[in-house]
Amino acid sequence: MEMKPAGQYIYSDIELDREEGQVIADLKAKSLEPIPDPDQWLEEELQQNILLTTVDALINWGRRSSLWPAICFPACCAFELIAANGPRFDLSRFGMEIMRASPRQADLMITAGTLTWKMAPNVRRIYHQMAEPKWVIAMGACAISGGIFASAEYAVVPGYNRIIPVDVYVPGCPPRPEALIYGIQMLQKKIARRKNIDMRKMLER
Amino acid sequence: MTVALSGKEVAGKIEEKFPGSVVESGPDNLVVKVDSLLDIARFLKEADGLEFNYLNFVTAVDYYDHFAVAYRLSSLKHNHSLTVKARCYDRENPALPSVTGLWQGADFQEREIYDLFGIRFEGHPNLKRIFLWEGFEGHPLRKDFI
Amino acid sequence: MAVRTEPFVLNMGPVHPSTHGVFRMRVTLDGEVVVDIEPVFGYLHRGIEKLAEQRTYAGIIPLTDRLDYISSMNNNFAYCLAVEKLAGIKVPERAEYIRVIISELQRIAALLIAVGAFLNDCGAFFTPFLYMFRERERIVDLFEMVSGQRLTYNYLRAGGVSQDLPEEFLPALRKFMDMMPRFMDEYDRLLQQNEILIARAKGVGILPAEQAINCSISGPVLRASGVKWDIRKDDPYSIYDRFDFDVPTQPAGDCYDRYRQRVEEMRQSLRIIEQAMKQIPSGPVRAEVPHLIHPPVGEAYGRIECPKGELGFYLVSDNSIAPYRCHIRPPSLINLTALRDMVRGWKVADLIIIFGSIDITVGEIDR
Ligand code: SF4
Question: How many folded domains does chain B comprise?
Fold first, then answer.
């Protein structure tokens, strides 16, 4: 096939770019408010004092002990995430050494880096592609609020919780690997308290 | 050591070839007329003793009444450098000739200027937004962008 | 006879394990052969140049950290050079030496990652990367000693560095310097004659010198194509003219050469650090620079040889406390200009290698 001169691509479809732009603009218009933490009910339900069933405990143990993160490496924080994976900090101690390139095999998303509006639809799609149950850790100041780049509103999303629900926030710019590991442990605690089987509903039935 | 060529000297050489095309020349830069930019660029690239074969960068600066587009050229052969500028006074529809035909390295940078300043580069093969998405309104690096 | 097919368009990225971040390519394929690619940028455009116009000169340094986040110190360095040029600030002797040491250490760290990621793309999944990270951690430790941070150091200042080296830095550096050549030999033993690496990378993705220059390529990619051009030698900034080091080049300009080039450059960096450690004088580490710098009206371009190529800052001042315009010359973006010509005619698997051998950081491409 003939090679076109510099810059003239065989396939460079402005229509597709326009479509992408439309998706971005729609998402931007839609996500004005942060999405609340999906598990906020946790505390309150626990107060109603329904003991976790043994089955629950077992399921939660299984889930929390091998969290597999999906890759979502937009920016600088990714290097601390890789360092946490690396030889010194060794994330595999927590059963999560495997970074899954395919979101369908993952159940945790560590959002390491700044999110821009152009990237937002892609991240949301990755999130939706992950199988339930799934969790999100927002790593770094950018992931929490836009961080140092928050004032470039035209391009930067002020926090991942505008587009996906976030479970644990790990502050820092970038957070040290220890901080990330602490955040993961917090998530594990959270999972441990999760109620999978609703006794009341079962009794009603 | 890279020698910064004196803009005055180079301006003299250019004036010889293309009279009246240099607007202004300083110790390390020179401002040329927009219509003769492409000819001058070709001259700078090919003339003996100059041979600016390497384009370090292209960028634009917004001065409210005009955009100054700066080309920093250097020659890996003679190890000297020069900044050439062109001014665009039209704010609604600024346009310049593209230098991608001479230095391919300008490809993405001209697209970047188009995206962030809204300056069109005539003759660029694929001029569309590079960093922001299609449909984005405004050009962020302009000084009056809100 | 080769079987031909309809052109097929494959979207690669922005989230893909081998695109080093959020980079996207639209690849047009004929069967398995790449006939065209169109890179799509902007998934990490954070408006650094815009933000820089609202900040003071000192306040921009943290932003530069986040450009090419695996070589933060070098970004600081280039920016500080530009400010010093603009405002006419003189840097004390000791600070110059500290800068050189730090900058070369950073170069080694960044090249380690570049080599590791390249081998990763070649199919040695994660093992070499972890080896390289082991050494990088040692360098990061040294940086943590001087700046207190692991990734975004914010250590250099216009007119020097933010604080003097701690007492235990030089002994620790000595230890690292004694160790590093051993590791390098280890890599060489593992990789230099490696059948698989040679089969996959030799002769793949050739970039001729002529074209490299026309495309404004810089850094190891340019030198791997046989062009002897290193800003440290050809336009010495800081005090690089005092050190004795070579500019290695490679003959062929293929992926293997680019890999070799990076390894050679690490060795040269070690040589520079060795000399700088011996010569480092004592004295102040920071010139008397006011907190708010008001450079005179004008413009300056400060550039350094960063691990990816020529990193430059073009600053325009209007005599206020913030630059009127701060343009960054991103080596990663410009080095990608030639990618399209390099990958044409190769298979998809080679595309990954060629792309990996250019070594980009998306933070710097999109800024
Ligand atoms: S929080 Fe800091 S280190 Fe992390 S992505 Fe944002 S700027 Fe980079």
Answer: 1
Hunting for tokens 């490696």 — which residue is that?
Answer: C194
Residue C253 buriedness (CB in 10 A; 0-12 / 13-18 / 19+): buried
ipTM exceeding 0.95, yes/no: no
CB C17 within 8 A of CB A101: yes
**Domain span at B99:** 3-122
Distance A171 CA to ligand 1 centre (A): 10
Ligand 1 pocket residue status of A148, Cβ below 6 Å: yes
**Residue A42: is its pLDDT beyond 70?**
no
Establish if B103 belongs to a structural domain.
Answer: yes
Residue C169 has pLDDT above 60, yes or no: yes
Task: Calculate mean pLDDT across residues A182-192.
Answer: 83
Reported pTM:
0.88
Provide, as residue numbers in chain C, all residues whose Cβ is less than 8 Å from the Cβ of A75.
21, 44, 46, 66, 69, 362-363
Instruction: Say which residues have a Cβ less than 8 Å from residue C61's Cβ, sequence separation at least 6.
Output: C76, C79, C80, C154, C156, C157
CB-CB neighbors (< 8 A) of A117 in chain B: 133
pLDDT score for C318 = 86
Q: Is C152 in the pocket of ligand 1 (CB under 6 A)?
A: yes
* Whole-number Å distance between alpha carbons of A162 and A173: 20
Residues of C in contact with B126 (CB under 8 A): 38
| Chain A residues touching B105 at Cβ < 8 A | none
Distance CA C114, CA C359 (A): 6
Question: Which two tokens mark C293?
Answer: 């710098």
Share of chain B above pLDDT 70, in %: 99
Is B131 within the bounds of a domain?
A: no
CATH classification of the domain holding B7: 3.30.460.80
Contacts of A125 (CB under 8 A, 6+ apart): none
Q: Is residue B129 part of a domain?
A: no
Quick one: tokens of C18? Answer: 């081998």
Q: Which of C26, C37, C213 best tests the B interface by mutation, with the highest count of B CBs <10 A?
A: C213
Mutate to test the pocket of ligand 1, among A72, A73, A76 (most ligand atoms within 8 A of CB): A76
pLDDT of residue C19: 67
| Sign, Cα dihedral of C277, C280, C282, C285 | negative
Report CB contact under 8 Å: B105, C216.
yes
Give residue A198's pLDDT band: very low, low, confident or very high (50, 70, 90): low
The whole-angstrom separation of Cα A168 and Cα A162 is 14
Q: Which pLDDT band holds residue A10 (cuts at 50, 70, 90)? A: low
Residue having the nearest C-alpha atom to atom 6 of ligand 1: A142
- Segment B4-37, tens digit of pLDDT: 777 677 777 777 777 777 777 777 778 888 888 8
* B142 within domain boundaries: no
Q: Residues C311-323: what's their mean pLDDT? A: 87
Ligand 1: does its nearest atom lie under 6 Å from the Cβ of A147?
A: yes
Q: Which residues contact A130 (CB under 8 A, 6 or more apart)?
A: A70, A103, A104, A106, A107, A109
- Does residue C308 surpass a pLDDT of 80? yes
Instruction: Name the average pLDDT for chain A.
Output: 78
B138 lies within 8 A of chain C by CB: no
